[in-house]
Amino acid sequence: MPPRLLSGKDLSEKILASLKPKVKKLDPRLVIVQVGDEPASTTYIRKKKEACESIGMRCDLMKLKASTSFKVLIKTIRALNDDADVTGYIIQLPLPGALHENEPQLFREIDPYKDVDGFTAYNLGKMFISSEFEHLPPATPAGIIELLSDAGIKIEGKCAVVVGQSNIVGKPIATMLLNRNATVIQCHKFTENLAQYTKQADILIVAVGKPNLITSEMVKKGVVVIDVGINTVKGKIVGDVDYDEVSKFAGAITPVPGGVGPLTVACLLRNCVRAKERQIDRKS
Ligand code: NAP
Description:
With 284 residues, the protein is of the alpha/beta class. The chain is 42% helix and 16% strand. It is built from ten helices and eleven strands. The chain has a six-stranded parallel β-sheet. The protein has a three-stranded parallel β-sheet with strand order 3-2-4, with helices on one face. Helix 2 crosses helix 10 and helix 6 crosses helix 7 (170-179). It is globular.
């Protein structure tokens, strides 16, 4: 039997539609800061802008030269913090050149109440405490949780294996699964014999950026596979999982594209609405 297809596209449309009345009432404004001209970033930004347009949310792109200095970027971040008409903003990653090395110092400057990417230590720390405090979680892990929950896939008591330990996907999704009482195994590039762990997974989440990293010999029958990876192979977008082969064993699987990607965008916009609500609560 073919696996159940977990479409992020349909669910993202549902999430976006549910935001519309709040956007109309609260009129939040998202600002996207792009440093340089990385083509993949330009594509992601276009998708974010289109999603904003589809629900009537204000969204402005602030384009800075690739040669922008650390000092100028810090000044830009502080100005966004001080601008009362900016609800939330994101610094589109990856940053070019030396700025990439300075990401922790840059994130430290972001007002946590405007941190709609959920990358600051404050918002990550809150998420660490419990699911109750996941107010502005990173968008991709939040999208994965939505996908599992919408599909009625039980997390509690299940063995969840996360491959990848980045600060924006791997680590936060492992924490969010732990908050929901999964038994979590986190793997990364120093993990020896990856298959030994992936074979145990009831839920397998892969966020690495390596096509065909997960093959059919590495999974057990009935596994739920969430493929976060985005890779271009011979001009085609593919994930980290050998989709055709792993599908023969999986109980459910996300397509790439059309799986986690659209949910990342929807959850970012949801964070912007939540940021506005929390800013209003804070003032009252
Ligand atoms: P990242 O920062 O490059 O992290 C990749 C992680 O994979 C690291 O933790 C790395 O381990 C681990 N890794 C590398 N080689 C490995 C191997 N052979 N076996 C096991 N683990 C290995 O990437 P990211 O930002 O999390 O993104 C991961 C992928 O997801 C990329 O393809 C990216 O484009 C995609 N992505 C998609 C979305 C979406 O919306 N669909 C959103 C964000 C990212 P170490 O830490 O030990 O180096």
